[in-house]
Design a protein that fits this description.
206 residues; mainly alpha
Length: 206
């Protein structure tokens, strides 16, 4: 699966654009690519693997996101495809996830049971979808005002600042991208191996 196809499929699953998707498709590195290189440590990568495993857990038919090392993929994507602002939002989101877990269960995410982790992420996902609906409605109204102003020969409205990307949306997107473009995830979709070396054309060595 090539990068463009992977981006398209994950965007379709999530019903939105992929943050950093353009750079991911081109394979180019962000000019600020060194920013997160020293921020995400091995402990955080392991933590992200547990979060990703909750989103895409192991089943009887296939391994989960942890086996695909989704956490390492997230680090690469953060480093190469996200702006410094987006990187900061993502990293600060790990702390917010801990706070959400403690608010709901009185303990950190890693100390929660599998059932508790799932319940927590479902609640965060519901909030994400609610916020997206609100943002979509605001953007639609702004577009209508802009069109009306242009039709009346008035100066363009000063468009509002785009909504800040959601840290949880980033985790969801990168979990799906990391999994379904890995050998494990690719095979889970019915990939039939052919003679030669597997190359997903996506994950670079860190």
């Amino acid at each position: 699966m090539d990068r463009r196809t992977a981006i398209s499929r994950v965007a379709l699953l999530l019903g939105g654009t992929i943050i950093g998707g353009d750079l991911f498709i081109s394979g180019c590195k962000s000019e600020h690519s060194a920013t997160v290189q020293t921020v995400l440590n091995e402990s955080q990568i392991s933590y992200l693997n547990e979060v990703a495993e909750t989103i895409l857990p192991q089943t009887a038919a296939s391994a989960g996101a942890k086996a695909a090392n989704a956490g390492s993929f997230m680090k690469t994507m953060l480093r190469d495809c996200y702006s410094p602002e987006e990187q900061q939002i993502f990293v600060s989101g790990l702390g917010k996830l801990e706070v959400a877990a403690k608010d709901m269960f009185g303990k950190g995410f890693l100390k929660c049971s599998a059932e508790e982790r799932t319940k927590l992420l479902i609640s965060l996902d519901a909030k994400l979808k609610e916020d997206k609906k609100k943002n979509d409605l605001l953007q639609q109204k702004e577009a209508e005002r802009q069109k009306s102003a242009q039709a009346g020969g008035k100066p363009n409205y000063l468009k509002k600042t785009p909504p800040v990307p959601s840290w949880f949306a980033m985790i969801k997107q990168l979990t799906l991208l990391g999994y379904f473009t890995s050998e494990i995830g690719y095979k889970s979709m019915g990939y039939v191996s052919v003679p030669g070396r597997y190359d997903g054309n996506v994950i670079r060595h860190i």
